[in-house]
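Reminder to self: tokens first, then the designed residues, so the page reads top to bottom the way the pipeline ran.
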């Protein structure tokens, strides 16, 4: 793992932008994208860049179960507002949280991932070490699956919703195996709330109890943290 420490999220996002641009210039065709507050500045940089994604593919990590792609809180809408509105891809995949058969939807997503292997995967990290929506205890060999969100994740994501009761309790997420199949991984973390998770991911034991620790065995991972998130390293 290559660890890059920066002063704050703005500088960190600039570094992330250069990593992204570098992959793009080297010919990456499929980008795995993440939601949450962490990649927002990176997406702003991408919106303002000269890069053209109209021949490329994007595949998002996850989506809440029960939210339509048009729902204001859905990750599909988030991606549209943060990136796709200004920089459309040729095709952008986000799991369908309203699929009538969620198991069929997970299989459909795995087929997409097989057809379009991810060149660069962007990741944030949950306070409890989750990646995508893979909560502690998820098998390292998991493919796309249905997840019951932990209270910690529901609370952490509450700020995107009016009240806690509005946060969906289930999600569809790419699995840990689907994520680590990406050729290159770029994980970003800002703020003190991520410091324990970052320490456990990098310096702790590799264990399914800390989903992000699986990245220790991936051969091409870049981690960008600000001083606060890296303060316990
Ligand atoms: C959610 C997303 C993750 C994200 C995490 C951290 O649970 N499913 O992909 O990394 O939140 O969110 P934030 O970036 O808002 O701290």
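Designed residues (233 positions):
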């Amino acid at each position: 793992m290559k660890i890059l420490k920066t002063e704050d999220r703005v500088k960190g996002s600039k570094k992330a932008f250069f990593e992204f641009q570098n992959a793009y210039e080297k010919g990456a065709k499929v980008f795995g994208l993440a939601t949450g507050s962490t990649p927002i500045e990176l997406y702003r940089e991408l919106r303002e860049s000269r890069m053209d994604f109209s021949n490329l593919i994007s595949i998002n990590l996850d989506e809440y179960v029960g939210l339509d792609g048009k729902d204001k809180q859905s990750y599909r809408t988030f991606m549209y507002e943060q990136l796709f509105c200004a920089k459309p891809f040729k095709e952008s995949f986000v799991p369908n949280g309203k699929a009538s058969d969620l198991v069929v939807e997970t299989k459909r997503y795995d087929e997409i991932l097989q057809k379009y292997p991810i060149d660069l995967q962007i990741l944030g990290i949950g306070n409890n070490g989750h990646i995508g929506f893979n909560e502690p205890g998820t098998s390292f060999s998991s493919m796309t699956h249905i997840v019951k969100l932990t209270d910690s994740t529901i609370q952490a994501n509450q700020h995107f919703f009016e009240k806690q009761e509005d946060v969906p309790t289930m999600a569809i997420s790419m699995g840990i195996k689907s994520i680590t199949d990406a050729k290159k991984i770029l994980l970003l973390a800002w703020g003190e709330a991520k410091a324990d998770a970052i320490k456990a991911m990098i310096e702790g034991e590799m264990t399914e109890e800390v989903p992000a620790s699986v990245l220790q065995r991936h051969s091409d991972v870049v981690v960008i943290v600000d001083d606060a998130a890296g303060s316990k390293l």
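The beta strands are 2-6, 30-33, 57-60, 62-64, 91-93, 120-123, 145-148, 170-173, 184-189, 221-226.
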